[in-house]
Amino acid sequence: MQKNDYFESEFKSGLTWRTISAILLTALIFIPLSIYLNLLLGTGLGSAATMFITLLFVQITRLTYKPLSRQETLLVYYGASVGGVTGVIYQLIIYRAYFIHSPFAWAAKLDSSPLALLVPKWMVPPVGSQAHYVRTLFQLEFLIPVAIYTIILVLGLFADLSLAMLMARVYVVEEKYPFPFADVDISLVRFLSEKQPRITKLILFSMLPGIIYGFFTYIGPSILGVQLIPIPFLDLTWVIRDYLPGAALGISTYLMAYIGGFMVPFQIAAALLITSCIIWVVLNSLFITTFPTLFPEWAKEYFTGMGLIAIQNRSFIRVWFAPQIGFSLGAALFMAYKSRKGLTKVLKTMLMRSKESSSGITVFPPVWILMATYLLSTGISVVVFHILVPTLPLWVPIFASIIYSFLLALVLTAMQGETGYTITPAYLWQTLVYLTPYKGYEGFTFTPAIVGTLAPSFSQQVKAALRIGVKPSDLVKLIIMISVISWVMGLFSLDMFWRIAPIPSSAYPYTVYYMPLLAQIDVVTVTRQLRITSEYIFVPMILVLAVSFLSDIFSKLFMRSFSPVGFFMGLFWTPTAAIPLFIGSMIGRFIMPRFFGGKNRWEEVRGIIVAGEMLGEGITLIGLISSVLIAKSSWLWPW
Predict the structure, then answer these.
(1) How many CA within 13 A on the CB side of residue 160?
(2) Would you say residue 266 lies in a domain?
């Protein structure tokens, strides 16, 4: 493989003082905004912030007559994601301060002791502590919980980043996965940094649907007082409940759910939809009507008229909670088999001291250093966990942190590489703890560093960076920088909002719904009210492996293509997301090429069109959020 097979020959650093300044300013302004929006509505700025911030800084630098280079633009674009940060781990400390005072924690008991009294001091100050009345994380009794979570964050970052670099070697350099959404990133960067009339016209044209949709979806209701488009989905369970009771059928009303399908191969989208419907529509119903004894709690709890959210939540807890872990293990093992050549090439370099991959491209440190960093970081996190929770069998943190994290990165990066989408199985940790005789609170609710989720997005970024001409090492520095910034700004922002008003409270409506729900999940898992045994994990794993290998053999014998990634994603995606993705993929496969002069021409411009829609919708959403915050500012003052 030659260097130019993959990338442009000129590599420049995009991490300049202008890039760093843009990221710092983004963090100062948008992290508090995104966290507040999450407390208010349960969502962050996400891609809207990324699009808006990138556009803003590109235009500002143009006024200085020294516009950003394409390398700088890409780094600003990826760095701007820090503005969408909402998942601050320190929020768990505030949640547990609520939990130990909630009726859920006092009503549920283990060995005659209320759960509220079983939460250790290193997770949150005990009941009766004056620290709960001061409402700030910056006091002595909260220092230990903050320090422990910070240690886990640092260890997790080193482990996740080393694993991400390893997966990028496998899937970008060796296996050459397409990473379709890298084209979207590249199209947006070229539109912003280069004056190409063709790209500019397509982007501006593609922005119109996003702006119009955003107006009717986000701004229209605030002006007209009427929700013209139901958000986030259209519930269709009432259509089939007489024929398929318990089926979770709905369809997303987000425009991006359809437009994003343009980037997904039709074969993968079809496999995803078929699998999703079998799981969430057919089997959900059969476990009520034909096989009620397999999951009796689900059959008992379902009632006619149950809505989509209730069906998805209850069937997940009562049916798919443990099997999804088996699905993910089976998928990871099969993807390890399918990627064995790339993995073998990479692992052979572990004894080499060179930074060169087999492609002759200097990208990242040698594999042996990456593996050593990964094993050391996860190993230390396991030791820290075992010191804090010594009664939980040691195999659980070892498997979850060291083994499962590697398998998770393997399958998620393959998903991202083929479709541009991923999904992470929920509640893996609680499921593993269920398989042990452990009794207690902290063992169910505190984990070592479980990583692997950075690898998919990082590999996509590497793909785009190499084509744009950005040094991949800049991405590593960028991730470290935005991680540290997000931790610091997230901690201070969260503390500020807690000082302003209690969490949960009516000042932050989403927390009034979400925290009690999280408390109920904690109670249900800690008191072992779920049906989870080893066969609920290993039988689904074996079934997934059997279907995957049989389909792979069939495709080779009869020259029929089989999409393992589409099949795996369908095991986790609900029809609500699978249907619009399939519709978008079908339109992109059969209709759009006719309007753009053929398949090759369409594949060249589809990334530009998706980027335009995202930009248009993002600008509209930022405008709405700004107006909401202005309206709310005077209302929050009494707090």
Answers:
(1) 22
(2) yes
